Amino acid sequence: MSITLEPIAHVVGGRSEPSDDFWGGTRAIIRLEPHFDADTLLGIEEFSHLQVLWHFHRASAQDIHLGARHPRNNPVWPSTGTFVHHNHRRPAQVGISHPRLLKVDGLDLHVEDLDAIDGTPVLDLAPWFAEFGPRGEVTQPAWPTEMLSSYWDRPDHP
């Protein structure tokens, strides 16, 4: 089975190159496609954060890696499987982000801390409902915390 998705929006501005770290404070616009009516966003300004599903548009099929590998190719961190990684090497090459919504201007959603680059196709978005967050205690090994220690540092203050 295959699925065809058309972007509902594109990222405008923000960063122009992908990077492993320093996404904090990055501001961009999620611009809905012009065939959408502004009513499709009615009420969204009451939410502080969005959930955004987007496509790694600069990735290629050759980037996909099925199987185990070290995160960021660092042999200090354990080799982990494809579905343990959050990057473009996954089969569907989609990302999920939770940026802060700053304001709505027509079909433009001004956001901060969106870790997608200028031109990124947005496949879907919704306001973040706290009730959809994880239930119960969240656990993880130590390596993601170490690996992502600079992920949300500001680009101008690494």
UniProtKB/TrEMBL annotation:
Signal sequence coordinates: none
Domain (TsaA-like) ranges: 5-137
Gene3D superfamilies in UniProt: YaeB-like
Pfam (any one): TrmO_N
Matching InterPro entries: TrmO-like_N, YaeB-like, YaeB-like_sf, YaeB_N_sf
GO biological process annotation, one example: methylation
Keyword tags: Methyltransferase, S-adenosyl-L-methionine, Transferase
Entry similarity comment: Belongs to the tRNA methyltransferase O family.
Protein name: tRNA (Thr-GGU) A37 N-methylase
Organism this protein belongs to: Nocardiopsis metallicus
